[in-house]
Amino acid sequence: MTGLAMGRRGFLGGTLAAGALSAHRGWAGASVGPLTPTPRGKMNVAFAISNDATVIDFCGPWEVFQDVTVEARGPDPENDQSPFHLFTVAAEKAPVRVTGGMQIVPDFTVDTAPAPHVVVVPALRHSPPLLEWLKKTSLTADIVMSVCTGAFALGRAGLLGDGPATTHHRFVDQLAQQFPAVKVERGRRFVERERLATAGGLTSGIDLALRVVERYFGRPIALQTAEYMEYQSRAWVV
Question: For residue 120, what is the domain's CATH number?
């Protein structure tokens, strides 16, 4: 599915009307409940990247997680009130060139990355080492979330199973064809399970990241984060 992270102008050439998109909401399964934060210190958020990874798919959620402040966690703003430690992970240590030409030196490889609490998978060029890492981390992470066609990487890693999922609206048919057991949800900003979630295209990842924040720390903290970002969508409220 390497081509899905490319040709951005091509697959966004015929977007839906803004009003229709803004009306779409997230969807949560009946078993989805709160996530339990660590009482002190940082929680690791790993962002998978590769050549041609779509910038907003991971930078949008990155901004969400970096802006979370939870004053009740303790007196140290750096170690306690900012609860997430963010880093990038790639198959190799070599710099990657993501969409628009931005170059990123990964913080870790799949062999050296710390165990994450949250994994973010954007539209990217998945590889066997990255898929193996996803399989491994999914066993212990609180939640693995994909954005846009990152859902195909989850499928290739065997994580989608026969549960509900979504992806960019241009690729929902392809997702259904490649993974016929998956219950593809159309017209959703994101689709949640207890420990796995998939977002639609691009900005949908911001909504899903805010929803993850809500599951950890409650709606007031998620609203506080969205307001700090001047992000006016409430599509993450389920």
Answer: 3.40.50.880
pLDDT tens for each residue of 169-225: 999 999 999 999 999 999 999 999 999 999 999 999 999 999 999 999 999 999 999
Alpha helices by DSSP H, listed for the chain, are 8-11, 18-23, 55-67, 128-138, 150-156, 172-178, 204-217, 219-228
Nearest Cα to Cα of residue 154 among 170, 178, 173: 178
pLDDT in tens, 130-182: 999 999 999 999 999 999 999 999 999 999 999 999 999 999 999 999 999 99
Is 25 domain-assigned? no
Nearest to 25 by CA among 223, 210, 219, 204: 204
Residue 22 lies in a domain: no
The domain in which residue 201 lies consists of: 41-228
Beta bridge partners of 191: 27, 198
Residue 202 inside a domain? The answer is yes
Q: Is residue 54 part of a domain?
A: yes
Asked if 145 and 197 touch (Cβ cutoff 8 Å), the reply is yes
Phi-psi map region of 125: left, alpha, beta (phi>0 left; psi -120 to 50 alpha): beta
